[in-house]
Batch of 3 targets.
Target 1
Amino acid sequence: QVQLVESGGGLVQAGGSRRLSCSASRSIVSIAIMGWYRQAPGKQRELVATITSGGSTNYADSVRGRFTISRDNAKNTVYLQMSSLKPEDTAVYYCNGKIPSPSTAGWDIYWGQGTQVTVSS
């Protein structure tokens, strides 16, 4: 199993930048896909960005061009660089990882506890 711990959340003014970090308890090269999701008050959790072990990235339309997901394998950490932040980006941001199951022919999915990002106008 793997533990994921997010950090870097906080209060930022609109137009500002913030970098979130997700630290894994094991080598992230063994995790097929890692990503960031977010959930705003009263709304459903939504995909923000993903990155595969091969480095392929995917972004939600709402953040494309403003957010960048990256990884540092040596530090077992995935980052989300957020720029040009808007009040509508306010949400709890969750780190996510998918790893092949050691006991089944499927996948195990892991979530961090989340970190709050608040963007003020």
Target 2
Amino acid sequence: QVQVVESGGGSVQAGGSLRLSCAASGDIYSRRCVAWFRQAPGKEREGVAVMDTVTGGTYHAASVKGRFTISQDNAKNTLYLQMNSLKPEDTAMYYCAAGNVYTLTRERYNLWGQGTQVTVSS
């Protein structure tokens, strides 16, 4: 059974950087697409970035484009989210997810991690 575990969250000041990791046990790439989502208190879970592990194609939401970068290390079966120029509005629980459709629609993902908290102070 495939499972994913996120790590790398923490507290940083605005303008700082963090790198989130999503480690998979089992073959996460049995699902073609892997993505990062986030959910702030009282808000809907929103897609941040997605990667097609077959083509290497990526898409980043407008709110993070140019600041966040999704990447993968196939040898380590690990997905990353490099987050630079962090803003207080980036504060949220960040989740890794896997599915078979290249999308940031959360309903299309059926494998989720437990999340890692990111807090950005001004």
Target 3
Amino acid sequence: QVQLVESGGGLVQPGGSLRLSCAASGIIFNINTMAWYRQAPGKQRELVATITRIGSTRYADTVKGRFTISRDNVKNTVFLQMNNLKPEDTAVYLCNSVPVQPWGQGTQVTVSS
């Protein structure tokens, strides 16, 4: 059974920071590329960042320089450190592997003053 459980979201003011976590099970975690996505209501799901099994990272231009993806292959966990948050970052954040597995519930990030 595949499980993806995101946590760490919340309400934060512009310029603030959050660190998201994704606990993964039921997949071959240590050989898969992992990714963070986000989806705002009524909008397409957007790829935010990816990290390969050996730690090579890629970021969407909208978050580059502000977000950092990392992984702990022993704990089967992926992280997303988000700094200098902006209102346009508001969305449900979800993680997944490549190939994509069934989606978890995600964690809500709301950036507002």
